[in-house]
Specification:
- Helices cover 41% and strands 14% of the residues.
- It has helices at 12-16, 39-50, 65-71, 92-96, 115-125, 140-145, 165-172, 179-190, 222-235, 240-262, 269-283, and strands at residues 8-9, 27-31, 55-61, 75-80, 105-108, 134-137, 159-161, 193-196, 199-201, 207-209.
- A ten-stranded mixed β-sheet has the order 1-10-9-8-7-6-5-2-3-4, with helices on both faces.
- Strand 3 (55-61), helix 3 and strand 4 form a beta-alpha-beta unit.
- The chain is globular.
- The mean pLDDT is 94.
């Protein structure tokens, strides 16, 4: 995919001139982790910590709360009710009523299943998020949102979306022929900053492009890592545009660094998380 003619290339020099604050590290809350995919919130949450979130909170299916707490000892974990089919239930909003208002950024989607239940969950959860917080939507949260774009309009200017190709088609209601154009279309329709396969667009019409990713980043869990990176930078008070650009570039560079170690087909999403700290350190020197 080539960049749009008016897209600004994302380079290390660009990011060094656009530094993310390091002295203000807020709380990131990750909501997801249905019965069959509890590892998604683990990947997203640990990526948020690597990107600099000060405090991590995870919300996942009740049956996975204790194992997640052991696997990510840095996090507070909240067990959430689930449906008979194993999806995180819309009733989870009651568990989170006193928790979400304190989060600086809320990431919703990694490991959610059942688009109907996810839509109902969004309806109940979004009003609980603080008015000055930021929102990251990914995975099933995007499929659910495509049913009613108005649901996210109160978050105009404060939301970042990180769809894959299929999710982008749901959000647009049609085929994706060019990622740059699709990202711009989604950004305008939902009034959100969008990171789509290296193409980044803001609702005000700004565009960026990162060509450092490779096809082998399209591996299971890689999108969860990207959503977590965006959330982590937002927890450090980055702007939505800044967080999307930094996260997309760090995600791509981490994948590049891993090729000599894992080969192009052996990359795992957890490997990306392990590289994030080094990549960020190099970019900030």
């Amino acid at each position: 995919m080539s960049a749009a003619p008016d897209a600004t290339p994302i380079t290390p020099a660009l990011l060094r001139d656009w530094p993310v604050p390091t002295d203000d590290r807020g709380t990131a809350f990750v909501l997801g982790g249905a019965r069959t995919v509890p590892g998604a919130v683990l990947l997203t949450g640990t990526a948020a910590l690597r990107a600099g979130a000060g405090t991590l909170q995870l919300g996942a299916s009740e049956r996975h709360a204790t194992p997640l707490g052991v696997a990510v000892p840095e996090a507070s974990v909240f067990g959430l009710p689930e449906t008979d089919g194993g999806a995180v239930s819309r009733e989870a909003a009651e568990v989170l009523r006193d928790v979400l208002p304190a989060a600086r950024v809320v990431v919703i989607g990694p490991g959610l299943t059942d688009v109907d239940e996810t839509f109902a969950l969004l309806e109940r959860v979004l009003p609980l998020v603080a008015e000055d917080a930021r929102l990251v939507l990914d995975a099933y949260a995007l499929g659910a949102l495509s049913r009613e774009p108005e649901l996210v309009k109160p978050w105009a200017g404060r939301v970042v979306m990180s769809p894959n190709h299929t999710e982008a088609e749901y959000l647009l209601g049609g085929e994706v022929e060019d990622y740059a154009t699709a990202a711009a279309g989604i950004a305008d329709r939902y009034q959100a900053v969008v990171s789509l396969m290296g193409a980044i667009a803001s609702p005000s019409g700004e565009r960026w492009f990162d060509g450092g990713g490779h096809i082998h980043l399209a591996t299971s869990g890689s999108g969860d890592v990207l959503a977590g990176l965006i959330g982590g930078f937002l927890a450090r008070s980055a702007t939505p545009e800044q967080a999307a650009c930094w996260a997309t570039h760090v995600h791509a560079l981490a994948g590049q660094r891993l090729i000599p170690k894992t080969g192009v087909t052996g990359l795992l999403a957890r490997d990306l998380v392990a590289e994030v700290g080094t990549v960020i350190s190099e970019l900030t020197q």
